[in-house]
Design a protein that fits this description.
This protein is mainly α. Helices cover 48% and strands 9% of the residues.
Length: 116
């Protein structure tokens, strides 16, 4: 379908509706929430159990994971801690997941893993 009124695909429509900064911010939030969900599943934790461990209410965790809220940094850190994760500000390197400059996802684990 190539209707010029609506665009030919989501990528084109997205570029018409949003600035590059809005797109990059959205991509970063989606990637970050995806990593949190993956870490929670990897640990075998329900949202309710994560609430108990983090002190962040389950509905807040659910809204974070759905992308319907914009959590504060302190809330993110509280949720990440029981998952053995943290946030880090790091130089952009080719080995890390690059979205597009200036954003990079680098979820650091507190365990002593070999990092390449």
């Amino acid at each position: 379908m190539n209707n010029k009124a609506i665009g030919s695909n989501w990528k084109d429509v997205r570029k018409e509706l949003f600035t590059i900064e809005e797109i990059l911010e959205s991509d970063l939030r989606v990637a970050l929430m995806g990593e949190i969900i993956k870490a929670r599943h990897d640990e075998g934790l329900s949202q309710k159990k994560l609430e108990e461990l983090s002190g962040v209410k389950q509905p807040v965790i659910a809204r974070m994971e759905k992308g319907t809220s914009d959590p504060k940094l302190t809330t993110m850190i509280k949720v990440l801690n029981p998952l053995g994760k943290t946030l880090a500000v790091v130089p952009i390197q080719k080995r890390r997941i690059r979205l597009k400059p200036p954003f990079v996802i680098n979820m650091c684990s507190e365990t002593k893993e070999k990092r390449t």
